[in-house]
Amino acid sequence: MKLIFARGPRTGAHPPRREANHAKRARNYRCRRPGAHRRRRPPRLRLPVPRGPGPDGVTIEIATVIGSGCPTGTAAVAVSDDKEAFTVTYSDYMAQVGGTSGPTDFRKNCQINMKVHVPQGFTYAIASADYRGFAHLEPGATGTEKASYYFQGMPQTTAISHNLRGRFSDNWQFDDVNDVTQLVYKPCGEERNFNINTELRVNKGTSDATKTSFMAMDSVDGSIKTTYHFAWKRCP
Q1: Lateral strand order in the sheet of 59-66
Q2: Tally of CB atoms within 10 A around 183
Q3: Which of 28, 35, 212, 189 is nearest to 122 (CA)?
Q4: Cross-strand bridge partners of residue 215
Q5: What is the mean pLDDT of residues 208-236?
Q6: pTM for the full predicted model
Q7: Can you point out the beta strands (E) in the chain?
Q8: Which of 79, 106, 153, 169 has the fewest CB atoms within 10 Å, i.e. the most exposed one?
Q9: How far apart are CA 213 and CA 64, in angstroms?
Q10: Residue 64 burial (CB < 10 Å; 0-12/13-18/19+)?
Q11: Quick check: bond before 167 cis, omega within 30?
Q12: Residues 197-207: pLDDT tens digits?
């Protein structure tokens, strides 16, 4: 999929929709939008991360999926052909406030526990992660994407948050890149499941309570994916 990144949010391009079917119509619309509001962590001096094609035989099996943002059957994982990354696709992951939203709809979360099978003699860490989605935020509303990941039985990585402010109605992308000195590799010779925690949150703020604001990390056609890039190394 080729993405064309815009320089920032577009305003005034979307006339107000009727409240009925707002979420459904917006969901279909975001799958067609080519633009994306993209943010990275502030630049700083980094050592090169050892990214590249991985060994043959890498497979991923989902062990458990828990959370309001990923009901049963709505999350899928796939490994890239060159084993450089794997993707997570959601089909029902959206937080919203205002309008006819329910009292708990402002926050959605998902935890995926997976078994990453790698050939003997190799291990991996996560070099970077790319999070994508769509948001429609009324003036005064805000949206937050938050994520962390860790190997079972090991300390959890520090959760990283990214924020959007209304008025905003566009695709978004946030990239989290790890410094080589911060890479956490799965211990060689040990079987440890890999956990991914994500959260979407929308706050009404000073926005009109009769209008819906939402932030989503899903797509009905699989075109919007979260990508985790491997850093591979050989075990001693």
Answers
A1: 59-66, 107-117, 194-203, 142-151, 160-165
A2: 16
A3: 189
A4: 95, 135
A5: 88
A6: 0.78
A7: 37-40, 59-66, 75-79, 85-90, 94-97, 107-117, 122-137, 142-151, 160-165, 168-177, 194-203, 213-216, 226-234
A8: 153
A9: 30
A10: exposed
A11: yes
A12: 999 999 999 99
